[in-house]
Amino acid sequence: MCCEDLGAMKEELWQDLPCEILERVLSFLPVPSLCQFRVVCKKWNELVRQPSFAALCAQAHPQRSYVFVMPDTVTDAVMGWELFDSVSRKYFYLSDDFLFKQVEMMDRFKIGFQRSTIAADKGLFCVLWSTMGLEEHALFICNPVTKQSKELPFYGFFDLVVGIHNPVVLMSVQDDMAGYKIFLIEEVHPTEPTRQRMHVYDSKAENWLKLCDPPQNLNPSSGVLINNTLYILFWDSCNLTHSLWAYDAAKDAWSIAVEKLPKSKIPQLVVSGGRLFFVRAWANSFSIVEIHLLEKKQTSVVSHMPSKHFDDLVQLVPYIDTWSPYHDMIGRNASFLSIGDGDSIVISSFKGRSVTYNLLENSWDQSRVNKQLVQIFDPLDEDTGLYGNSVTLSLSMPPS
């Protein structure tokens, strides 16, 4: 019998098994199945919070990756995260009710609030809560599988970022889940062009630190992390073009990687199969463009999305001709989102549809529908935006 069929078993068939055998059997279950089967009995529910069981699961089998796509800002209602498992080809849901309970104890959020998942890596999610008028904020790092969270310090520089700017936020979690860093790169402030724009939160220092700023004429649009290097796509306001810059975290220094990239209305970087790509939206088509950092010819087109998939993806998107002209240029409130997932690149629209390009097979898969997005999004709202990522799931609690 497959481990994933354990959910059909009754509690009395398992309650007399030695704990060591039970834990060993359960450790082979994928995390979504563990979430489902924790309702079998109290002992199973408590098991997922134990560090020893988390370590056992990490050793038992390779981790799967899961893709989630959601609105970049959500108000009031409990929403959580709907993740797609490419192995089972099914969606499953992780609730954020545990964060609601924590926020309900804070007086400053009694009147109303909105929240955004601003970064995610491995099994940890970074979630920003704000009052509707953006007067008060709370920043959390959490694991929705174990329903554990920690509030992070929130400093003054974040106020303007939340209220006015659309920063690029990237999170890097250690493989052993023992620590993490959250990188934040702001836009150029119109009235304070020399103000500090780049910060990092280091979980081991438990503090926000200042980093070397990018050049003042560059506004961040999209970013990815590869090993210890951040690759950030910038809009160059002087040359009116997109360029790719690399930030070396070890040296705290910026360098230009690609001076000029092809024109794109919604420029987005993705990493897939260990390779760096630029997803280009132009002339009623999406193109997958590979970036060759160490070669003379720095870009090459890998594939164009077939028109039938493009038409299905953009159907009912009201501002396809303008692509929400300002917001999409800088990467937030974008009506489309590109995510690297293993050896695939997933392109999603806010109407709830996704199309996948498989690098190994050089093929495009038919679209799938995210019902959560379909139910929530107003297709006539030009402020609608998407956030998403490819993550693995873990039973480790956020580092303290």
Automatic annotation (TrEMBL):
Pfam families: F-box (PF00646). CDD domains: F-box_AtFBW1-like. InterPro entries: F-box-like_dom_sf, F-box_dom, Kelch-typ_b-propeller, SCF_F-box_component. Residues 11-56 form the F-box domain. Keywords: Repeat. This is F-box domain-containing protein. It comes from the Eukaryota. PANTHER family: BNACNNG10540D PROTEIN, F-BOX DOMAIN-CONTAINING PROTEIN. The keyword Cell cycle does not apply.
